[in-house]
Amino acid sequence: MTLRASSYLNQVDIGDGTTLLFNGLSMCIDVAPAALADAIKREADLSCLSDEERRHLIDRGHLTDLSPAQEREEFRKTIDFISARVKQTNKRRSSASVTFVLTFDCNLACTYCFQAPVSQRLRRHVMTSELVDDFFANGFPRLFPNRLKKSLFTLFGGEPLLPKNRAAIERILAHVEKFPSARVNVATNATTLPRMIDLIGPEKGKIQSVQITLDGDQPFHDQHRIPHNGRPTFDLMHKAIGRVVDEAKADVAIRIHLHPHRLQSAEQLVQRLDREGLLAHPNIYVYFSPLNSYGADQQTAEDVEIFERIFQHVATKSGRAPSHLLYMNSFLHMQGKKELPTVRYCGLGSGGFYTIDPLGGVYQCYDEAGDSSRRVASLVDGKLEFFALKDEYARRTLDNLPGCLDCSLAIFCGGGCPLRAKDATGSIFAPHCQLNKEFIRQTLKAYYLRQAAAAGDEFPANG
Asked: CB 3.0-4.6 Å disulfide test: which of 259, 296, 349, 417 passes with 394?
């Protein structure tokens, strides 16, 4: 039997002479000596392996006697199986996520804002209390017909915490308070947050979590995240973080934007947050998000080095990986081939995520709000009308992304953001990798190091 390294084998250097092997087809994860991992990668002589070690690597999928074409076919079969399971799960969906775009107006003029064209055209429109009532009475029951176990509601904009949005926010909170298990979040620039602090708190009927974005350290942030008059905003946002956790007793998600070739600024910010005790604060979650325009092809060696360093530093101090891939923690315990719960990048097309804008347009993603050609439905005078785009988005899974079938990380990534793919290629049925691969690697490494530290010499059991 002629063996070779699996086409879906990935490696992450742990830094202590060992390497994390994880397979994008079998979803198996193992720890191996770095020298062995390197030999497998180079397909060098593996005669040093015992029969038991060789069988283990074959059973886990890291070594294979299949040709690349045969492995690719096995990957397609796995995707088809999971997709069929996902479709059945979606029919029984018991969770809901709704984003309210309260206004397209914003009091900032960030240099990279993707909403700027829509904001200029539609900024006078504000969500009314009547539309909120109409949505909960007639829209929500049709979008989510199943009995729900939990619901998530997000307030978005523009800037959702502008004073003119208070009436709509209060109506949303009044409706959500009637749900048995629901949470309300807001994504805000926090510059007007002090005027809304009474609406924020841990209890039911309040905004329980606040997301605030920082662009890096103070000098860099104040060059990019600014109002039209150019005044600095870092101090306003920084003070708002303290007010939310100390005064309102609510949670804060600090989103740190990553700008190409400016990761030194992100590192300076991380160091400041660490000195202030915010990385380890129980009510604060810090995570990284690359700008939409920041792709893997723009990464320099220095970018990669800094990203790994700050990623692992935040993970160590906070106990959580600073990414959107928190579910990957469970993969470390897989002792055999497992199926993933989904084969898509996000909730778009799943039937569990919807966005409604001030005009009654219903979308699958808040990035498309305001573009009436991208609506999946419309709510007007109590009537919800669906459009064909809803079915198109439902087909955006890995089995319909041929460009992903040879990727060793596709089943962890789901093909990347469909909207960014559309911007780049004109079609949602294309991959958009951005920095996904590096996020996946560092997330797995962070959770491995965390669990290894907690388990001591007993972890990993299958090394």
From this structure: 349
Q: How far is CA 200 from CA 101, 184, 232, 284, 442, in A?
A: 18, 9, 25, 15, 33
Specify the pairing of strand 353-356 against strand 95-101: parallel
Partners of residue 390 on adjacent β-strands: none
Q: Give the span between the Cα atoms of 243 and 294, in whole angstroms.
A: 32
Phi, psi of 312 (to 5 degrees): -70, -30
Domains, the chain, ordered by start: 1-65 (no CATH), 94-333 (3.20.20.70)
Residues 6 or more apart in contact with residue 385 via CB below 8 angstroms: 377, 378
> What CA–CA distance (Å, rounded) separates 42 from 91?
45
383: left (phi over 0), alpha (psi -120 to 50) or beta: beta
Q: Is 302 helix (H, G, I), strand (E, B) or coil?
A: helix
pTM above 0.90, yes or no: yes
Residue 458 has pLDDT above 60, yes or no: no
Please tell me what DSSP assigns to residue 147. P
* DSSP letter assigned to residue 35: H
Q: What is the C-alpha to C-alpha distance for residues 453 and 330, in angstroms, rounded to an integer?
A: 16
Q: What mean pLDDT do residues 44-72 have?
A: 91
Amino acid code (one letter) for 333? H
List pLDDT tens digits, range 365-390.
999 999 999 999 999 999 999 998 88
Res. 114: pLDDT tops 90: no
CA dihedral 54, 58, 62, 63 (to 10 degrees): 80
The residue with tokens 């002479």 is: 17
DSSP string, 152-208: EEEEESS-TTSGGGHHHHHHHHHHHTTSSSEEEEEEE--TTGGGGGGGB-SSTTSB-
pLDDT reported for residue 265:
97
d(CA 223, CA 19): 40
Main-chain phi, psi angles of 117, to 5 degrees? -60, -40
